[in-house]
Amino acid sequence: MEPNREHFRDMTFCDFKSDLNQQQCLERLSTAFPDSSPSRSAIFERSCSRPSTAVTDENIVRVRNLVDQDRQISYCSMQASLNID
């Protein structure tokens, strides 16, 4: 089983709660998951993003379909179509 984005988020949270710094967290994940670990910027430059419930396989497919239908679709229209606040 390959870990997904949510698994990595949980692991980095655990690392920070265990008083590991960002570099130690990155090294630990890179050693354990050399092909699928998060990038350096994902660990060092955390930002506010959509809740994990908004990033689903179903929503990804729906966004692709919306963009395929209308390449000029606005972010607000997409947000309304997906019922994401």
From TrEMBL:
It comes from the Eukaryota. This is Uncharacterized protein.
